[in-house]
Amino acid sequence: MKITKVKLRTKAMLNNRESVRLDYYPPIPNPETGKLTRFEYTGLYYFTKPRTVLERTHNKETKALAENLRAQRQLEVQAGQLGFLTAKDLHADFIAFFRDLKEKRDGTTQGNWTGTLNYLVKFFGMTKPMKELSAKDCEAFREFLLTYRGPKEEDASLSQNTAGSYYGKFKSALKLAFKEGHLLKDLDKDTKNIKAEETEREFLTLEELKVLASTPCKNTLLRKAALFSALTGLRYSDIEKLTWPEIQHSQADGYSIRFRQKKTKGTETLPISEEAVSLLGERSSGNVFEGLSYSRTLLKNLKTWVEESGIPKHITFHCFRHTYATLQISMGTDLYTVSKLLGHRDLKTTQVYAKVMDKAKQEAAGKIKLLDI
User: Fold this and answer.
1) How many domains does the chain have?
2) Domain-embedded: residue 372
3) Are residues 166 and 239 in the same domain?
4) Is residue 335 classed as helix, strand or coil in its secondary structure?
5) How many Å apart are CA 258 and CA 11, to the nearest integer?
6) Contact at 8 Å (CB) between 24 and 4?
7) Which of 125, 115, 111, 198 is nearest to 158 (CA)?
8) How deeply is 167 buried, as exposed, middle or buried, from its count of CB atoms within 10 A (0-12, 13-18, 19+)?
């Protein structure tokens, strides 16, 4: 009987990568189904043309890991121990798995997934086999995010909310890995979330918004998208993908947007003002904000625009959504209606804006003075 040989093979992928798989020849029988199998995918990958030190280091470490796995499988095959075929991809690498998930994200969400990946690599290294992951590892990574300080004195630690966001992405990946059969245990359930701290939400007053609107912005698409967000409360992710057919009009109800929220996946009908529609220009087909891209250039343009308007606040794109919510409440719109306009599923999510307005009222109460004391 011919002895099965186990060899490493690669297969071209997108994004300058090639996946690593094990080749069994002659094929080996699956102990559960009896069917012959020739290939086993490892979940590992190489950079086809490594361009950086990090990529070259990744290739070197991955090749060593892949060779160890090949040698282990060769011994198992010769000993007739084929149990590794009964559990799907338990040898796969979690870091590679997470990186693939990150590549599927876009817009603002990819930034959080990229940040999480960076800290996973800081903690686990370039590789972490699925079968070695434990609840203790998860708890240790949680503590790492909460306490990490860089090697330089000026390196800042993560805020609790950023750590919580990163850990949430990590837990999402654990849950999916278990669902797809890469993990034998649902580690997501064995570790608790990082509780978010209540933070101040920056927003523009109506006067500031008018000043910003009258200030020239060299990125006209950014200006249009930002002011549209301030007039509708839409998130950046929903503005970026907004299409002309989603903007509807009727004689009875005026203008509205019928769309599916990218974040919550819920289908919404959002009434919008004629002024918001007038920002968009002539109606056509396809995307309303064609060419809009969440990038460093966009963020730099936004910062410059705000600075040139003379507004002394740190304004991100999401602040325009906050501005919409706080202005609605300040003008008497009830909390329940604001919650529906924002597409919140839980009224508690909207209540933070009421707290913002309470603080604004307290500050306003001290502005009128009869005595100069």
Assistant:
1) 3
2) no
3) no
4) helix
5) 43
6) yes
7) 115
8) buried
Closest CA to 293 of 348, 349, 221, 195: 221
Q: 188 and 62 in one domain?
A: no
Report the 10 Å Cβ neighbour count for 256: 16
- Using one digit for the tens of pLDDT, what is the confidence trace for 257-298? 987 776 666 677 888 999 999 999 888 888 999 999 888 899
Q: What is the distance between the alpha carbons of residues 155 and 53, in angstroms, rounded to a whole number?
A: 22
CATH number of 255's domain: 1.10.443.10
Q: Are residues 73 and 54 in the same domain?
A: yes
Measure the CA dihedral 27/31/35/41, to 10°. -60
At a CB cut-off of 8 Å and minimum separation 6, what does 108 contact? 236, 237, 294, 317, 318
Token pair recorded at residue 175: 């849950």
Q: Which two tokens stand for residue 115?
A: 């940040």
Residue 348 CB-half CA count within 13 A? 2
**Which sign does the torsion angle of CA 84, 88, 93, 96 carry?**
positive
Q: DSSP letter at 29?
A: E
For 24-61, write each residue's pLDDT tens digit: 898 888 766 667 888 887 778 888 998 888 888 888 98
Q: Taking 80 as the threshold, does the pLDDT of residue 15 lie above it?
A: no
In this structure, which amino acid lies at residue 330? S
Same domain as 181, residue 290: no
- Tell me phi and psi for residue 271, to 5 degrees: -65, 140
DSSP H or E run through 25 = strand 17-29
On whether the CB atoms of residues 237 and 108 are closer than 8 A, the answer is: yes
> Rounded distance, CA 317 to CA 236, Å?
7
357: left (phi over 0), alpha (psi -120 to 50) or beta: alpha
Any domain includes 157? yes
CA atoms of 198 and 233, how far apart (whole Å): 21
| pTM score, whole prediction | 0.53
Angle subtended by helix axes 296-309 and 206-214, to nearest 10: 110
Rounded to 10 deg, the angle between the 160-179 and 94-103 helix axes is 100
Among the candidates 197, 217, 236, a domain finishes at: 197
| Tokens linked to 345 | 């599923």
DSSP strand pairing (254-260 vs 36-47): unpaired
3-state helix, strand, coil in the chain (%, to 5): 50, 15, 35
